[in-house]
Amino acid sequence: MIRRFDDLFVPDGDDARRWAEEELSNPRYADAKPTWFDLLARDIGRFLADLFSSGNGANVGPSALIIVTVIIAAALIAALIIWGRPRSSRAVRRPTGDLLGAADDRSAAQLRSDADRAARERDWDAATILRYRAIARSLRERDLIDPAPGATAQSIAREASAVFADEADAMRRAAVSFDDVRYLGHSATPETYRDLVDTDDRIRARRPEGVPA
């Protein structure tokens, strides 16, 4: 039963309990609960604090050191089991969908095939664009470059030149050819495409272990 004092409502015991249960059922309270890992860390912290407290300080010796070492080792093993081995920064792949300003999930082999098809149809503009994309994608697939999202043809050429110093001029020409066709509206020629193919073939033949440091 609810009694009214002017504008103030005072719930009785049953209503107060029901209101409290409804409020505590809100998901935000469940999210705030400590996890089992939080509880374990708290218990370990308390154990260590008690172990090295002033009252037990005189009794801390080799046995305590062994206990602490075992606890730390167990915690590290548990972390590895739960979260797995840390991966190197190079192992973390960026999404491959964006390539030279366009959403493109094709592999290097697919891009080469499409470029060759365009070349057979004498569509040298499309062939040139696709072949340079194939070069960029191939270098990325082999972990020889790690371009940032939105990387330009010129920036990819600079990264590739840092790996293949003797291909710096060829990569610079390839990037210029791509930009001329893609952004400046210049027409490609069979010679333009052949130069890209030759550059791509030479770089593909270079194995990673043969790349100079």
3D architecture notes:
The chain is mainly alpha-helical and 213 residues long. It has two domains: 11-83, no CATH class; 95-210, no CATH class. Helices cover 61% and strands 5% of the residues. β3 (98-99) and β4 form a beta hairpin. The longest helix has 22 residues, at 62-83. The chain crosses the membrane at residues 64-84. InterPro entries: TgpA-like_C. This is DUF4129 domain-containing protein. Pfam families: DUF4129.
Radius of gyration: 32 Å
* CA(first)-CA(last) distance: 83 Å
Main sheet summary: 2 strands, antiparallel
Q: Please report which band the strand proportion falls in: under 5%, 5-15%, 15-25%, 25-35%, 35-45% or over 45%.
A: under 5%
Helix content: 55-70%
Protein structure class:
mainly alpha
Number of strands: 4
Order of helices and strands: EEHHHHEEHHHHH
Assembly classification: single chain
Write down the domain tally. Answer: 2
Count every helix, treating DSSP H or I runs of 4 or more residues as helices: 9
Summarize the SSE layout with pairings:
Blueprint: E1 3-5, E2 8-10, H1 13-24, H2 27-32, H3 36-51, H4 62-83, E3 98-99, E4 102-103, H5 108-120, H6 124-141, H7 153-163, H8 168-182, H9 190-205
Antiparallel strand pairs: 1-2, 3-4
Helix pairs in contact: 5-6, 6-8, 6-9, 7-8, 8-9
Domain Protein-glutamine gamma-glutamyltransferase-like C-terminal: 131-199
Transmembrane segments: 64-84
Protein name: DUF4129 domain-containing protein
Name a few traits of the molecule.
213 residues, 2 domains, two-stranded antiparallel sheet, 9 helices, 4 strands, 61% helix, TgpA-like_C, DUF4129 domain-containing protein, transmembrane, membrane
